[in-house]
Fold these 2 entries.
Entry 1:
Amino acid sequence: MANTVIIGAQWGDEGKGKIVDMLSAESQVIVRFQGGNNAGHTIVVNGEQTILHLIPSGILHKNTLCLIGNGVVLDPEVFLSEIDALAKSGVEVSPARLGISRKTHLIMPYHKIMDQAREAARSKGTKIGTTGRGIGPCYEDKAMRAGLRAGDLVDPDLVRAKVARALEEKNILLRDLYKVDPVDPEAVAKGLLALAPRLIPYLTDVEEHVAQAMKAGRNVLFEGAQGCHLDIDHGTYPFVTSSSTVSANAASGSGVGPNTLHRIVGIVKAYTTRVGSGPFPTELEDETGEILRKNGHEFGATTGRPRRCGWFDAVILRESVRLNGLTDVALTKLDVLRGLPVLRICNGYSYEGRTLDYPPQGEGSLGKVTPVYEEMPGFDDDISACKSYADLPEKVRAYVNRLETIIGVHISIVSVGPDREQTIVR
Ligand code: GDP
Ligand code: IMO
Ligand code: MG
């Protein structure tokens, strides 16, 4: 038995969906432990693409149980439309293989309205660039003990009371501060209760399922969303998401002890991307950045926004290794670098007259560093059909080996294309 945690080691969109799907072939239970439908996880099987925002990326493997843990925030409408879309394409999504923790918080219509109104009110330079999916306001309600949880759906009176209480405060903000229409609590409660009969069959005790599976010697896979540097504590605050994205949260976000987590795989893009605002030392706002965006199809899987692109940043990565206790790394999108004459790797920062090999921690300080680069020769070969590490051209292996050396963790998986098959296990 081996339990594995998958986390994004950069700023999200590293290819977690693809690797979770691949490792699901050897796992019986897959658990999402944080975030919500701000995530967009892409899986490609035989050329056919599926983008999942909420349902674990193990769902395409027939014999898996997919669970949504207590650390997730769940938009009921998105959940139902996602299962409808999967069912339409022939995927079994009955409660026999899909469950939601009773403790999972629900994203309510007013969370989305708050998220969007607040972003709109922020002045240039202070906008976070959120996905507008209500993620932040939902976690706020959780922390201020005003949230609705999935388990509440069985109690209509509790739903109505909680909605009314939440809106007492929010409607003042919406009407008087953000100058948007207040929300009718009756209509919100009615809307949610209308979805309840479809949601209730999915309610389950996630921690118990996971504990039983572990006891029976099954492999459990924990699927992270976003990336380590979007973490609410360790990320580039305030330009972060509202949940804990580091590996430790796989335990508390799904209700298991940290001693059950054996392998922690960081998903790492062979370069760097970021969506939304915030510091990004190796960002390329030039033709090379355009090439990466075009060749890597770097447009958000959730919002369609163009992703900011830049060189590989080993300083950021070393911090990810430390914060997550990575046992190994899956390096993705290596094929995208094809055709660039030179590959640059940031291996240090120049900051206030010093050279740092780890990121400065003060708020905004990452925006003030200058990357110190080393260079490696690029490659022109098409590597997208390579099946083994030995098949990769020498220049490509040299790049991978160099990354491995400077981040200090074994690169166990190399991805050379979006398809499930385009993966090299070392
Ligand atoms: P996630 O949020 O971490 O699951 O990543 P996304 O799905 O948002 O973004 C990754 C994108 O890269 C998706 O379009 C994937 O299909 C694609 N992808 C994943 N691995 C590779 C790879 O090795 N090469 C290429 N060219 N594309 C990849
Ligand atoms: P996956 O799981 C990339 C970013 C948003 C914004 C910030 C806060 O696909 O890797 P939020 O809506 O969470 O309050 O937005 O976080 N963000 C992501 N960026 N990939 C994601 O998920 C993201 N989820 C949130 O762009 O900058
Ligand atoms: Mg994504």
Note: Residues 80 and 198 are 8 Å apart (CA to CA).
Entry 2:
Amino acid sequence: MEGLMMGTQLLVSSLLRNAAINHPTTEVVSRSVEGPIHRYGYADLERRARRLANALQGLGVGPSDRVGTLAWNTWRHLEIYYAASGSGAVCHTINPRLFPPQIVYIVNHGEDKVLFLDLTFVPLVEQLASRFETVEAFVIMTDEANMPEIRLPGALCFETLMKAASEDFEWPSFDENTASSLCYSSGTTGNPKGVLYSHRSTVLHAMAAALPDVVDVSARDVTMPVVPMFHVNAWGFPYYTPMMGAKLVLPGPLADGASIHELLENEGVTISAGVPTVWLGLLQYLEETGKALSTVKRLVIGGSAVPRAMTEAFLDRYGVEVRHAWGMTEMSPLGTINTPPHGMQDETPEQFCDRQVKQGRAFFGVEMKIVDDDDNTLPEDGVAFGMLKVRGPWVCSAYYKESGSDTHDGNGWFATGDVATIDETRNMQVTDRSKDVIKSGGEWISSIELENIAVGHPDVAEAASIGVQHPKWDERPLLVVVRREGAELSRGDMLAYFEGRVARWWVPDDVVFVDELPHTATGKLLKMQLREDYKDYVLPTAGG
Ligand code: AMP
């Protein structure tokens, strides 16, 4: 027997409509690319998104056509999110930090019909435009007063386009399984792969992410995603903030400590989110200036492992709760977050910081397990580690335009490529990317754990560990370290720091000091490059 309930489709446009109707004057505040702060209410955002939906139709964008963006976190980018998805087209966010040939590949593979770009990226697009095979129009996201001289065929000004379009537009209803947005995974090898989100997956992910034990957003909150809108839809903040009617702050192109602090304080931000590097910058700024964080309650940090020292600094010095989260482009992105189960709420600050080192527990909608090489499920004892597999309504079922997938098994599980443990409280810890694990004498050493320990040393700014060839052990760990400015850390000091913190055979065989480490376009350590750089490195232990 079927239930007798309405089959209302879960559509991205409903999130914005809700905000406009129930929270019309709640603000969206952005640092513009041009400089000044821009602010308006959700009702204004919805009106402009309708206008833009008409403008898109005027440019020939029809259902399921891809609308590319190369843009920072601003109100105009948000309008594109809603106008494109809401009208039935697909919003395709492109990471401008990728290598130019990858951008060309992504635009062509995604078959973008229109490309919206911030002023920042005009020179880049001028350089690449002739290699874009499907783009019919380029829209510069600025007003007439700020339009630069442009060498692009058919370049249009965003605000001119808006002025000419009508506001009269009804958000259409269609099947919730329709594609809403497209994002390519950064992948450290091969071509980037497209992850195609649906309206249903986006709305369900937003509803789950807003819950108290996940990001915990209410209408009284002020959120500020520092994570870029070109990186997995800014972890969903542009969807669940309007859904909850919270005030939304978008930091534009500036993510340095001073700029972030200014917005956090001036706008009364209560929840913010981003990768560890951003918060390292903020901590340094706070230390240098002696300033405080007066409104922030919570930082959701993920994308790379959060060092314990960071959680401790925010809690002890600034009274801010760090919530360690894990996810990936393929998961919309949230998969786990580190909030405790019932019965663990009375932990000491020390216990809290210890727990936050792990990536967290799955929340409703996400199933996870760890398996060995033969796909046998491993025990959840916090010790056994293996490939982390996940499934759920916001996990990708295949990659865009790829037939077959070696990451999906016959039972609907997706192999994340992360190696992890799960403990008795179901708190998951990523020990490595499967390709980054250091294989020493048939046993595995977690490169992430070595890095976490190294960055706990007060003289270390950043560290990476990789497996280097070894005649006896196959691979042994090499630690590559960036010293803090002015620090005089020696190899001996660094290695001594590992004593008592890991098993003896995990201690790196050597330390190399460098000025900087290579990073991917999403700010993760580029281990592949490091492995290439040190492939002929001879460890001091290689002779013995
Ligand atoms: P991306 O698709 O670019 O968001 O990258 C996803 C990958 O980032 C995951 O598969 C992990 O390897 C890594 N990652 C994300 N969050 C964390 C975290 N909290 N700790 C360690 N690695 C993480």
Note: The mean pLDDT is 95.
